[in-house]
């Protein structure tokens, strides 16, 4: 199938979900040449359990690659499965096939809920309804779903001791769980009920998180054992909203979640200096912790880019690396689009900084960086 043909595959909205027949909701396994056995792969002892992620674009596919390699790096004993939408390029699918045990091709499901998505200023989240396909993976008894913008910092196989639906609280509204990491049990019955629920009720936020919180509506009150500790889904946004807590507990983090519109792949990486470069968004919109961002890029550069280069061959590949020789006045983000470097920040008074902070205009990459705030905290705590 060519990339042009992929464009003909329909995008479904809530009103169309109920019209799907069971055969249309099933996953189809994408035929990919089985890669040679990985020399560094641990022996799998739990073949009926799996980590699952989703990629609907090439950018998110690269995020999934980093996630998969981070799970491999920390010696998971579970299978790795990735759901891919029709618009993911063939070379990216090939690389995913060399990292994941299963690459499953799925149709894209879109909420089509422009109103609620507009409230979140995230129109791109409608396609996250595609995540609901994960309940059709009935060859597994239990799974852990992880968004493609998460990064594993240590082994998290203990998550499989939890039951459906276990998840960590969302930093924006802690009585809701964040659907970036959750434990679930694949079931055709649950999948059908979710589709019916979508058709009848939609989503209060336009994305999968609203649907799942409404469907599993007793999460906040019924069973505390289904509340995952925040260290299993550490939001990069929450780091700055409650910095003292991060300073106290952050060293125990097991999974970091790069929430928000700006993702690690929207930056670029200076491989010579080992530094992450800025991005095309204003600094106040970036809430990604620089240490975790650097970890993401280091793993991407070491364990993903060589696979992409081999898969793309002679075809042009935008790796996201910054080349000072070719790009002295600008840098490229991972999509290959040129983005001007931000001008040097102007010095502002303490009073003006305070006013900007209270207005939510925080310079995360400059005076209000984590390192500067931490130093200020240390001075008060001594």
UniProtKB/TrEMBL annotation:
Q: What class of enzyme is it?
A: transferase
Q: Which InterPro entries match?
A: Glyco_trans_8, GNT1/Glycosyltrans_8, Nucleotide-diphossugar_trans
Which cellular compartments is it found in?
A: Cytoplasm
The catalysed reaction is:
[1,4-alpha-D-glucosyl](n)-L-tyrosyl-[glycogenin] + UDP-alpha-D-glucose = [1,4-alpha-D-glucosyl](n+1)-L-tyrosyl-[glycogenin] + UDP + H(+); L-tyrosyl-[glycogenin] + UDP-alpha-D-glucose = alpha-D-glucosyl-L-tyrosyl-[glycogenin] + UDP + H(+)
- E.C. no: 2.4.1.186
| The keyword Metal-binding appears for this protein | yes
Gene Ontology biological process terms from the UniProt entry: glycogen biosynthetic process
Q: Keyword annotations for this protein?
A: Cytoplasm, Glycogen biosynthesis, Glycoprotein, Manganese, Metal-binding, Transferase
Q: Name one GO molecular function term.
A: metal ion binding
**What are its GO cellular component terms?**
cytoplasm
Cofactor(s) of this protein: Mn(2+)
Pathway membership: Glycan biosynthesis; glycogen biosynthesis
Region spans: Disordered: 328-354
The record's Pfam families line, in alphabetical order, gives: Glyco_transf_8
What is the role of the protein in this entry? Glycogenin participates in the glycogen biosynthetic process along with glycogen synthase and glycogen branching enzyme. It catalyzes the formation of a short alpha (1,4)-glucosyl chain covalently attached via a glucose 1-O-tyrosyl linkage to internal tyrosine residues and these chains act as primers for the elongation reaction catalyzed by glycogen synthase. Self-glucosylating initiator of glycogen synthesis. It catalyzes the formation of a short alpha (1,4)-glucosyl chain covalently attached via a glucose 1-O-tyrosyl linkage to internal tyrosine residues and these chains act as primers for the elongation reaction catalyzed by glycogen synthase.
Q: Which PANTHER family match?
A: GLYCOGENIN SUBFAMILY MEMBER (PTHR11183)
Family of this protein:
Belongs to the glycosyltransferase 8 family. Glycogenin subfamily.
| This protein's name | glycogenin glucosyltransferase
Source organism of this protein record: Xyrichtys novacula
């Amino acid at each position: 199938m060519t990339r042009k043909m992929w464009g003909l595959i329909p995008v479904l909205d809530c009103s169309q979900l109920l019209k799907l027949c069971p055969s249309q909701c099933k996953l189809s396994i994408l035929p990919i040449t089985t890669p040679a056995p990985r020399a560094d792969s641990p022996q799998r002892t739990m073949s009926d359990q799996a980590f699952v992620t989703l990629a609907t674009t090439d950018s998110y596919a690269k995020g999934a690659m980093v996630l998969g390699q981070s799970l491999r790096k920390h010696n998971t004993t579970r299978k790795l499965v990735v759901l891919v939408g029709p618009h993911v390029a063939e070379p990216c699918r090939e690389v995913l096939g060399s990292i994941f045990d299963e690459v499953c091709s799925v149709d894209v499901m879109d909420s089509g809920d422009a109103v609620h998505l507009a409230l979140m200023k995230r129109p791109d989240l409608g396609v996250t309804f595609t995540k609901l396909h994960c309940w059709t993976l009935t060859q597994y008894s239990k799974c852990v779903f992880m968004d493609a913008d998460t990064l594993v910092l240590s082994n998290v196989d203990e998550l499989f001791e939890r039951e459906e639906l276990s998840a960590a609280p969302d930093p924006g509204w802690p009585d809701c769980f964040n659907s970036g990491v959750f434990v679930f049990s694949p079931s055709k019955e649950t999948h059908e009920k979710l589709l019916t629920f979508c058709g009848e009720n939609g989503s209060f936020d336009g994305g999968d998180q609203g649907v799942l919180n409404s469907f599993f509506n007793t999460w906040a009150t019924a069973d505390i054992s289904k509340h995952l500790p925040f260290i299993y889904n550490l939001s990069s946004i929450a780091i700055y909203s409650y910095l003292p807590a991060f300073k106290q507990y952050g060293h125990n983090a097991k999974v970091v979640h790069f929430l928000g519109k700006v993702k690690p792949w929207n930056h670029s990486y200076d491989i010579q200096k080992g530094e992450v470069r800025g991005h095309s968004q204003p600094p106040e919109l970036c809430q990604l912790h620089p240490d975790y961002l650097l970890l993401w890029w280091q793993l991407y550069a070491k364990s993903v880019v060589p696979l992409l280069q081999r898969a793309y061959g002679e075809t042009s590949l935008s790796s996201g690396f910054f080349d000072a020789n070719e790009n002295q006045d600008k840098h490229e983000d991972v999509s290959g689009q040129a983005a001007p470097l931000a001008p040097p920040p102007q010095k502002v008074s303490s009073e003006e900084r305070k006013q900007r902070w209270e207005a939510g205009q925080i310079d995360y990459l400059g005076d209000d960086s984590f390192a500067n705030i931490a130093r200020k905290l240390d001075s008060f705590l001594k």
